[in-house]
Amino acid sequence: MTRVPSPRLRLWGSRIALVLGALLVTTTIVELGLTFWPLNWTAKASANSNDIFARVDAEWNVPHPDLGFVRKPFVSFHGRLFEDPRAHDVAYTTDAHGFRNSPDLKRSDLVFIGDSFVEAGNVPQESTFVQRCSEALGVPGANLGRGFYGPQQELIVLKRFAEAYQPKVVVWCVFEGNDLQDAVRYQEFREEQARQPSWSESLSTWLKQRQISQLWKAARRKLKARKKNYQYTWELVGQFQPKDHPPEDVEFCYRYRPDAPTRYASGMAALVDSLEEAAKWCEKRSVEFLVVFLPTKLRVMGPFTQFSDSSAFARYTEDGRFDHPQNLAERLALAMIDREIRFLDMTGPLRDATKDGALTYSARYDNHLDLAGHAVVAERMEEVIRGLFLPR
User: Which DSSP helix (H) or strand (E) runs through 168?
Assistant: First the structure.
C-alpha cells in the first residue's frame, strides 16, 4: 500500500520548492544583469581599498588560453595603492589590448616588455621609466609590461603585440625577484591545461567565474579595506636614512637567493630560451634588442639599511652578503654575452643612487621601484639606447 504524504508535509515541500525556484530565478536575473550592466559601485568601493591591484587582478582581468589572463581593455581607475603618506596618487588606464598605454598610441619607436616593474602601477604613468626614457629620447614608447607575467608570457606578448608599433628598439626587463618562479609557474599552468579536470574541479571553476561570485569577493574586499591599522607585511624590516628626510622604516619581501638559477633550473632555462628567441625575432625585423636586469630591493637598499632583527636578516640573505658568484645577475649576463645579446645590469646605478640617500624603492607595502628608482633606470637606459641605437 502506497503511503500518501500528509497535507502538512506537502505544504512544506511546496514552500521549499517555491523558495528554491525563486532563488534560482533571482540568481539568474542578477547574473545576467551583472553580465550586461556591471555595477560601478564595486570598482568605486575598491578604489579606496588598501590594495588596488588586488581589485584589478580580481575584477579587471579575463582568462586567456595562452597567457593565463589578460587585462580588460580600456580599464580606468584613479586612487592610491596603499593608505600611506608615501603612496602615490595614480591614474591607471589601459589600451585596447589591456596594456598601460594611451588608447591613441599606434606607433612607437620603443617597446618595453616585462612584468609589474614595467607596468609600474604604483607610480603615475608619467613617472615610469618607460615614459621618462621615451621623453628623454624624444620618441614614443609603448608599455607592454604586465604584472604576474613570466618570460614565456612576455615572449608571447612580444610576438603578438610589438610588431604593430613598428619599433626600432625592444627593451626587455628581467626582474630578479620572481621571473624564474614565474617561469616555473607558467610551465605548471600549461601542464595543468593539458590535464583533464574532474567534474568537481570544473564545477568549482564555473562557480568562481560567475558575476555573483565576483560581487561577493568585491564586498569582502570592501569590508577588509576598513581596517586602518597597518601591520608590517613582511618579517624583514630595517631603517634607511634618506637624504634630507627623517629615517624611514623599510620592508623587504624577496629574499636574496644566489642559488636561484639552480634552485629553479627549468625557470632559468625558460628565461634564457625566451630571451634568445626574442633576440632572433628582433633581428629578423631589424629591431635592436636590449635586456635590462632589475635587482630586488634587498640587494639594492640592503647594504645601506640598518637591521635590528639579525635572525630575520640571516634568513633573507646568504651569509649576510648581497653579491655572490654565479647568482642570477652574473649567470644571465654570461648567457647574454654567449648569445651576443646586449645586457644592462641596473644593480650598480640603483645602489649608487641609494648610497646617496635616494629612496629608490617603495619603503613599505611594496617592493617595486619608487620615483627615484624609475628616474635612475630611465637615465641609464636613455644613455645606452641613445649611444647604441638612435642617432645623436
Answer: none
**DSSP label of 100:** S
pTM of the complete model beyond 0.85: no
Contacts with 43 (C-beta within 8 Å, 6 or more apart), sequence order: 55, 59, 77
Q: Tell me the domain boundaries of the chain.
A: 41-233+261-295+323-361+368-388
Question: 299 with 256: CB under 8 angstroms?
Answer: yes
Taking only the tens place, the pLDDT of each residue in 190-210 is: 988 877 666 665 556 555 555
Report how far residue 277's alpha carbon sits from residue 46's, in angstroms, rounded to the nearest whole number.
40
- In whole angstroms, give the CA distance from residue 131 to residue 362: 19
Dihedral of CA atoms 65, 71, 73, 78 in degrees, nearest 10, equals 170
Alpha-carbon dihedral sign for residues 335, 337, 343, 346? positive
Please say whether the beta carbons of 156 and 278 come within 8 A. Answer: no
With 80 as the cut, is the pLDDT of residue 39 above it? no
**Cell 598610441 sits on residue:** 105
Q: What is the DSSP string of 314-377?
A: HHHSBTTBS--TT-HHHHHHHHHHHTT-EEEE-HHHHHHHHHTT---B-SSS--SB-HHHHHHH
CATH homologous superfamily, domain 41-233+261-295+323-361+368-388: SGNH hydrolase (3.40.50.1110)
Q: Distance between CA 146 and CA 293 in Å, rounded? A: 16
The residue among 213, 218, 237 whose CA lies nearest residue 51 is 218
Encoded amino acid at 40, one letter: N
Band of the pLDDT at 227, cuts 50, 70, 90?
very low
